[in-house]
From TrEMBL, chain A:
Protein's name in the database: DUF4194 domain-containing protein
Organism from which the protein derives: Chryseosolibacter indicus
Recorded superkingdom: Bacteria
UniProtKB/TrEMBL annotation, chain B:
Record has Coiled coil as a keyword: yes
Annotated InterPro entries: DUF3584, P-loop_NTPase
Pfam family of the protein (one): DUF3584
Entry's Gene Ontology molecular function annotations: ATP binding
Transmembrane segments: none
SUPFAM superfamilies: P-loop containing nucleoside triphosphate hydrolases
Name of the molecule in the record: ATP-binding protein
Coiled-coil regions listed: 289-359, 592-662, 692-836
Keywords annotated in UniProt: ATP-binding, Coiled coil, Nucleotide-binding
């Protein structure tokens, strides 16, 4: 089996729980995985490591079939946070569609003039300055691979955002038949 | 007088902490002095003579600058006195803000500078020179110029005399080496330093490869390459198609939105106008209806009033008739006819009674005189007859009178009735005629209306408008057809033009490449020739002469040709030196040009040729880029025009489709309106026909009524006449009968009278005869009188009844016919009036229904408009969409819209929703597209975060233009050019750099040769100093070499105009490889952090020193060799050797008649014999040592000049010569 020479790099990124998006700085790696039969080769290759290479719309990631409940819970908690952050970005004038570039200062400015956004941001970050708050949450998304930091002030939305969107779309709010707020 | 050129003396005037000192240094010199006494200050000043660089003197940044420390006063001078074969001259250095030099053609004379123990200002010094007619140079303002003069490299010949030596282009190595030795004499000798010196000796600055520049170019290239690569990604092409589609559909939606908005505006205005007009119409109709109704009511009431009177009259007549019938019945029951007959006999009875009574009286009064008696009887009879005749006559007269009276009355009644009848007829006929006239007028009106209906164009406004639209569409269609034809033709011609440009450029390019290749081939051939020469030169006559015959250029060089010079088979041998003859013939070659070239000239020529190739390559790349750019700009303009035309065609086609749709719709509408019009016309016509029919019928009816009336009149008149005639006849008959009766009576009576007279005659005669009396007669008379009296009494008893009867007869019974007729007439009148009114009622109902229908229709359309306006107000006006479209909606002219306001509002809202959906997709696609590129990509696919609609649309328009003008081709050409240029630049720079390799080796060899002489034969201190070079370990250099190799292997295949052409697999592989190489290089440069690649990076230098039993092995730096003294000695040897080699390399090959100083401080550790050996070692190489010693020792005895530094009472440093002599001259 001839795995591509970039396999270690790919593994290093994906095994950290990160994504490889087609529109990111690691776009070349995306191309490598997508090239001819590489996806299947790598899937097979990585299967021995306990990870399953998964493909989304213009992004790749690892999944693990069996995970400890504790880790699952932690992940769920993490996701709850990401959903709140997504909610924050979705409430902005510019929606977080793939390829959108956000400037931290610009977001902070919008928060200054939009009380609702401001409240959401305050609920998400405990940093003192507005700019730091924004940078913190954008940084969190960047760390998870949903955003990518292009320069000190700019973050770009990655293809992997679709993953988050899909997860959010899977959430069903069950009606327990009890009306709390009549 | 010196036989060589040397820095003879250095004089300080007001320099640092010295007021004046003069130090002669034309030999090995030693400065002795404790620390901080000014040794280094002086040594630096000496170094400054050689380096003329204030920064490379080892002054740390915390210390004062050279200028500030040395030249504290305007009259501070450093004077360097130089000894030459011809004599002495000196250089004065002074400061006037910055440092200046002047060369003075005389030895230093203190009086020229110092007068009365006071140093003069430069101006005064110059004045002094003038005064003493001493020549001096212009003020030299730059260090570079000064160095050029001192090292004999200044092109100005007047400064030639001030040169210390005759240096070549590399003379900079000499001051550099002197400086380096001074600065690093105490520290480790690193191979780097030697390498640098070697590099400096063989190359100039511009041979170094500036990695910063290359890295920048590489970064630019890779970024641009990456941009283009991103551009060509499959999903981006798809995305851009999506953007184009989205953009076009949002454009269309916008157009539609504008059209709808304009239509809505028109519809709103139309509705507002219609609302007023129709409102008024509805109100008018309603008023008319009310009026019509009230008019009808009035007429109904009038009609009822009229009928009421007639009915009353009829009632009266009926009651009269009833009463008459009743009374008649009563009278008949009372036997009125008999009574009447009896009453008629009354007078007769009365006359009878009188006659009988008279007869009776006569008969009873006497029987005497019979004659008298009878006479009286006869008289009485005569009287009676006369009386009778008189009664009869009066009866006749009365009868006649009555007859005439009756006749007159009858005639009067006839006349009256006739006139009444005629009058009544006239009234009725008039009324009917009037009605008929009215109907006829109505009919005329209706006829007119019928014509009007036939002529009228229904829904004219709508139809005209639609026809106008259709005409407009057909006009546009015609225009469009021609416009499409024109545009298609234009596109065709543009395509041909594009093909022509491409073809032309292809041919030009091929020609250019061919020419370029040929030129390069010629140049390469030349280079090859030079290379061949250079490769063999050492084994040919050239090499022999270089090594064994200095100045051969001046002699042999002028008479020998190149072929001979590079011929290896000549086996030259020097038989006798100094014989300047050609096979025994002496030639004066002083005016002959030197034809042969030096090695440097060959190298220079080769470099020149290489540069030409590079220039040609560059020119080719430039040409290709320029051509591509030009072609692209032409093609872009064509593409732009074509795209413009195509977009116009698309627009036209879109308009055509829209117009077609509209045309269909308009035709349908037109058809519909026409159908509606015809329907309405038919309806109106039917209505008018019915109306006219009714009118005709009514008119006929009226005519009939009139004729009927006429006939009734006629009949009435004839009846009347008949009745009159009948009555008259009856009257005449009655009269005749009465007359007859009277006549009969008269005759009867007269007969009776005659009979009675005869009777009486007879009786008279009988009486006369008998004279007797007859009582029967009297009795009979008595009875007749009684009967008559009874009858008369009876008559009187019934007189009242008869009177009543007669009155009733006169008042009632005789008028019963009249009453009946009158009643009949009145009945007919009511009937007729009712019929007429029924007609009116019918007409009224029809008109009312028609008006109600019309009002309803109007109200319905009014409702439509009002609802529309209300809908707009309630559901549209407050929306932002209205605000956005207000500028279109508000000024639109009023126009009917088939869809209606509500329809248009909902269409607009649907359009807006669709627009927003499409725009959302569009924006997402744009963000995703732009997001794939770098934020500052050179293709300018940027979208500002938080940009508005406009920016996204601008982006799409730019993208469209980009595709239309195929702008990527320009980028590709630019990238290809920078790619080619980069590789060319790298490879040519590398070639230029590696060309030095041979010289480096040569230099190293020379150094090694020189080192071998430094083994200090006497003491055997140093067994050997060895040097060797190895291949460079520099990673960047290796990458650069790889690129150069690649360039060599693929001279013409790499970096064609299109780096992204995947059609040619082999070429695409090469392109890929070259790009990878460049990427690798960029990566390595950024990893290694080297700023430049210099000659010294081409090789690694290793030393090996054996001193006593110490063998260092091959080392990179000489840190410590033996003890401190030995170490210093070894280093000094190495330095001197290096300096010597550099001097050799940096000066002309003429006889060496100059000396330089090598300043090595702190040499106190070296033992005396070694120092002596060192001094000798230096002296052998025309190098004078200037050393510093902290303390006086015996060492100073080995120097030509020894000075001690002391401070005087004023604190000024004084340099005192200890002894001035050469130990071993």
């Amino acid at each position: 089996m001839n795995v591509p020479k970039q396999t270690p790099e790919i593994f290093a990124i994906l095994s950290r729980g990160n994504f490889i998006s087609s529109n990111g700085s690691k776009g070349k790696l995306f191309d490598v995985i997508s090239y001819e039969d590489n996806y299947n080769i790598l899937k097979e290759f990585f299967s021995h490591t306990g990870y399953t290479l998964e493909q989304g719309h213009n992004y790749f990631y690892f999944s693990q079939p069996e995970e400890a409940n504790l880790i699952m819970e932690k992940k769920l908690e993490q996701f709850a946070y990401y959903i709140d952050v997504m909610d924050f970005f979705s409430s902005m004038d510019t929606k977080p569609t793939v390829g959108t570039r956000y400037r931290v200062t610009q977001i902070a400015e919008e928060c200054f003039s939009n009380e609702r956004l401001k409240q959401k941001l305050y609920a998400l970050s405990r940093r003192e300055k507005m700019v730091d708050k924004v940078a913190e949450i954008a940084g969190d998304l960047a760390q998870a691979g949903f955003f990518e930091q292009e320069d000190e002030d700019t973050y770009k939305v990655m293809d992997a955002i679709h993953y988050l969107e899909e997860v959010i779309s899977l959430i069903t709010i069950e009606d327990d038949g009890e009306q709390k707020n009549p | 007088m010196e036989s060589r050129r040397i820095l003879n003396r250095i004089i300080f005037i007001n320099i640092a902490n010295t007021d004046y000192s003069s130090v002669e240094i034309a030999g090995n010199t030693c400065f002795v002095g404790t620390n901080n006494m000014g040794k280094t200050t002086l040594q630096r000043a000496i170094l400054f003579f050689y380096s003329a660089n204030t920064r490379g003197l080892g002054i740390s940044s915390s210390q004062k600058t050279f200028e500030d420390y040395y030249f504290q006063f305007p009259n501070s001078y450093i004077i360097y006195e130089i000894a030459t074969e011809e004599g002495l001259f000196h250089v004065m250095v002074y400061r006037n803000n910055k440092l200046f030099y002047r060369f003075v053609e005389s030895e230093f004379v203190q009086d020229h500078y110092i007068v009365d123990n006071e140093a003069l200002l430069p101006k005064a010094v110059v004045a002094k020179f003038n005064e003493h007619r001493i020549h001096y140079s212009d003020q030299i303002e730059t260090f570079e110029r000064y160095r050029n003069i001192i090292y004999g490299a200044d092109p100005d010949k007047k400064y030639k005399k001030f040169a210390l030596m005759k240096g070549n282009a590399n003379y900079h190595n000499i001051p550099l080496a002197i400086t380096s030795i001074f600065l690093s004499s105490e520290s480790v000798i690193k191979a780097e330093f030697v390498k640098e010196c070697i590099a400096n000796s063989i190359s100039s600055k511009h041979t170094t490869i500036e990695l910063k520049t290359i890295e920048r170019q590489l970064r630019q290239f890779t970024e641009r390459y990456h941009d283009i690569e991103t551009f060509f990604r499959k999903e981006n092409a798809q995305r851009s198609d999506l953007i184009k589609d989205n953009f076009s559909s949002i454009q269309q939606l916008k157009v539609k939105q504008r059209a709808l908005a304009s239509e809505l505006g028109g519809a709103l205005k139309y509705a507002a106008l219609q609302k007023d007009t129709i409102g008024l119409q509805v109100a008018e109709k309603k008023d008319l209806l009310v009026e019509l109704e009230s008019e009808f009511r009035e007429r109904e009431i009038a009609h009822q009033e009229q009928n009421k009177e007639t009915n009353q009259e009829i009632g009266a007549l009926k009651s009269k008739l009833k009463e008459a019938d009743k009374k008649l019945k009563e009278y008949e029951e009372k036997g009125i006819h008999d009574l009447l007959r009896e009453a008629e006999e009354k007078e007769k009875l009365q006359v009878e009674l009188q006659a009988r009574e008279t007869e009776y009286a006569t008969l009873t009064a006497g029987f005497s005189d019979v004659e008298q008696q009878f006479k009286t009887l006869f008289n009485a009879l005569e009287n009676e007859r006369k009386e009778f005749e008189h009664v009869l006559s009066s009866q006749g007269l009365q009868l006649d009178k009555k007859y005439h009276e009756d006749k007159n009355a009858l005639r009067d009644a006839y006349r009256k009735e006739e006139s009444e009848l005629k009058e009544r007829h006239a009234v009725d006929a008039d009324r009917i005629r009037q009605l008929k006239n009215q109907k006829e007028l109505d009919n005329k009106d209706a006829e007119f209306r019928e014509k009007e209906i036939k002529r009228k164009r229904y829904f004219d406004q709508e139809v005209t408008m639609l026809k106008g639209h259709l005409e407009e569409i057909s006009r546009r269609k015609f225009e469009r057809t021609s416009a499409l034809a024109v545009r298609n033709n234009n596109i065709d011609s543009l395509r041909k033009e594009g093909d022509h440009i491409r073809e032309k450029n292809r041919i030009t390019s091929e020609q250019y490449i061919e020419r370029n290749k040929q030129e390069i081939a010629v140049l390469e051939e030349k280079i090859k020739t030079i290379d061949e020469k250079l490769s063999v030169h050492q084994h040919a006559l050239f090499g022999y002469l270089q090594d064994n015959y200095p100045n051969w250029f001046e002699t042999i060089g002028k008479v020998v040709n190149e072929e001979l010079l590079f011929n290896k088979e000549l086996n030259p041998k020097l038989i006798k030196k100094g014989i300047e003859s050609l096979y025994g013939i002496q030639l004066d070659l002083s005016h002959v040009k030197v034809y042969s070239k030096t090695l440097e000239e060959y190298e220079q020529e080769r470099t020149g040729l290489r540069e030409q190739i590079v220039a040609l390559n560059h020119a080719f790349l430039e040409f290709r880029e320029e051509q591509t750019r030009e072609e692209q700009s032409k093609l872009a303009s064509i593409g732009k025009k074509t795209a413009q035309l195509k977009s116009e065609i698309t627009q036209l086609e879109y308009e055509a489709a829209q117009d077609e749709q509209k045309e269909k719709q308009y035709n349908l509408d037109l058809h519909e309106w026409q159908r509606k019009g015809e329907e309405q016309r038919e309806k109106d016509a039917v209505q008018i026909y019915t109306y006219r029919d009714n009118l005709d019928k009514e008119i006929n009816e009226l005519r009939h009524q009139l004729s009927e009336l006429e006939s009734i009149l006629k009949k009435g008149l004839s009846d009347l006449q008949e009745s009159f005639n009948e009555k008259l006849a009856k009257l005449n008959k009655t009269f005749d009968k009465e007359i007859e009766k009277i006549r009969d009576q008269k005759e009867e009576k007269l007969g009776e009278f005659d009979e009675r007279k005869a009777q009486l005659q007879k009786e008279k005669s009988a009486v006369l005869k008998k004279k007797g009396i007859d009582d029967t007669r009297i009795k009979k008379l008595k009875k007749d009188i009684d009967e008559i009296k009874t009858a008369l009494r009876n008559l009187d008893k019934h007189a009242e009844l008869l009177n009543d009867y007669r009155k009733d007869k006169r008042e009632l019974f005789d008028h019963m016919d009249d009453f009946r007729k009158e009643k009949e007439r009145l009945d007919a009148q009511i009937k007729q009036s009712d019929a007429l009114f029924a007609q009116e009622r019918e007409l009224f109902s029809k008109r009312k229904k028609q008006m109600e229908d019309e009002t309803r229709a109007l109200a319905e359309s009014l409702k439509k408009y009002v609802d529309g306006l209300e809908h707009f107000e309630r559901h549209f006006r407050d929306r932002t969409l209205y605000d956005r479209l207000r500028h279109i909606i508000d000024p639109a002219p009023a126009e009917y819209a088939e869809a209606g306001i509500i329809g248009l509002c909902s269409q607009l809202l649907a359009n807006d929703t669709e627009f927003h959906n499409q725009f959302e997709k569009f924006r997402n696609n744009v963000s995703e597209f732009a997001g794939r590129f770098r934020p500052d990509n050179h293709l300018n696919f940027k979208i500002n975060p938080g940009a508005g609609e406009g920016e996204y649309e601008r982006f799409a328009a730019y993208l469209q233009d980009f595709y239309n003008e195929n702008k990527i081709q320009i980028s590709i050409a630019e990238v290809a050019k920078s790619h080619g240029m980069l590789i060319d630049a790298i490879s040519s720079k590398m070639k230029a750099l590696t060309e030095h390799k041979g010289r480096i080796n040569k230099m190293i060899n020379k150094m090694e040769a020189d080192f071998s002489k430094a083994s200090f034969e006497g003491s055997k201190l140093i067994e050997y100093i060895k040097l060797k070079s190895e291949d460079s370990e520099n990673k960047v250099l290796r990458k650069l070499q790889k690129i150069t190799e690649f360039r060599e292997q693929n001279p013409f295949l790499y970096g064609e105009a299109n780096l992204f052409n995947t059609n040619n697999k082999a070429k695409s592989e090469i392109d890929k490889k070259s790009v990878e190489l460049l990427n690798d290089l960029q990566k390595t440069i950024s990893e290694e952090k080297n700023e430049e690649i210099r000659v010294q990076d081409l090789f690694e230098l290793r030393f090996r020193i054996k001193e006593g039993k110490n063998d260092t092995g091959w080392i990179e730096k000489i840190d410590k060799v033996g003890s401190t003294g030995t170490d210093m000695l070894v280093k000094a040897v190495i330095y001197i050797t290096l300096l010597n080699v550099f001097i050799k390399e940096s000066t002309e090959k003429t006889a060496r008649n100059f000396s330089v100083h090598c300043i090595i401080d702190e040499v106190g550790q070296i033992s005396a014999p070694y120092l002596k050996e060192l001094i000798n070692f230096a002296e052998e190489r025309n190098i004078c040592l200037i050393n510093g010693l902290p303390n006086e020792s015996k060492l100073e005895t080995h120097y030509n000049y020894t000075y001690k530094f002391r401070k005087d009472a004023n604190g000024f440093v004084k340099v005192v010569p200890l002894l001035t002599m050469s130990i071993e001259p």
